[in-house]
Amino acid sequence: MRAIRLVEPGKPLELQEIEIPEVGANDVLVAVKAAGICHSDAHYRAGRSPVHPLPLTLGHEVSGIVEQVGSEVTSIKAGERVCLHYLVTCGECEYCQRGSEQFCKSGSMIGKYRDGGYAEYIRIPARSVFVLPDEVPFEQGAIMMCSSATSLHAINKSRLKPGESVAVFGVGGLGISAIQLARAYGAELVLAVDINPAKLEKAAHYGAVPVNARETDPVAEIKRLTGGRGVDVALELIGLPLTMQQSVQSLAVLGRAAVAGLTEESFQIAPYQEVINKEAELIGVSDHLAQEIPQLLTWASSGKLDLSAVISQTIPLDAGLINETLDQLESFGKPLRVVITP
Fold it and tell me: What is the pTM of this model?
């Protein structure tokens, strides 16, 4: 089969012909119909986040059709439309047992520590496979498995309650999902912070109040729009020290900032003024949970989560086009989401 693989960090991905993986007793073989290109993949290619073993097929946002199931698999049948939870976990360690499988002691992520979905087929344990409703296109099902699932986990970690206010920092793939999911949870006011007018226009389309951080101080504007109190929940989905700082500064008394963006840099906060005196909380958000995916799929099939406007382009399984997309993601020049359709 054809697969687009990382052979050496810092170098372009390469097209390789490799064997279709053999299915174990508890595995499922999926014919890939869609694989999202995530900003994380640009980090993997650049070597900023280690990938091993090499060479390795990238791609952790995957949907497709079940081609074959192992002898012990009863939860999934050949021919079913599916999407894949990108974490492969043991199900037995202390973290898996308490529902925090993203910290599984033997866990691995597809597209980073085992072959992913930039290929014609992928093998994965059946416990990471979920039936994709007919109402949800493969392309949307794929990107839901990263951006939407992570946004949902961030909202769950923030303990958002109906009637509360939310500021979403970053209107990319995660942000568009976060806006819709916050509204599904009953948020009274959703503010969307970005510097890109086109993204802010999309945010407004989904019911958020846009805040252009290029034209105004977003913290001051958030305070103005909330009558001086700040927001109950801030979701940081960009991964910049500045926006992380702003997410904390924008909080109301008893507010919670859930930080999901990735960066290696530090940011500063004023402990008394911005945290202690408000009893505010700074919450780390790591990946997402398999148990959250059914709710996500329910909202997608009912139309409460619509990602049709998020996907800006589909491309074939072509190394040149995929590398070009990753180049643009590196420079933050690619709008929203590009999806591979092998």
Answer: 0.90
